[in-house]
Amino acid sequence: MDQMMAPYDEMLQSLIGNHADYSKVDYLEKHSEEYGKNDANYTHRLKVLLAMYNREDRYAPHYEPIEISYNLL
What we know:
alpha+beta
């Protein structure tokens, strides 16, 4: 389980701190013939949420800005 979650944890860690890079989780519109307009970063956000959910400190204050940004989407 730890090995499976490692990439998700890395993505979560990249969102914490003063120099957070949200480019991999921001809404990124893409278009496909099959689905039309959709979000290219949807799965990245899901990975971050799963990483947060599986952490024992998921209610820690340093996650609050990340959760707020997801609520705005």
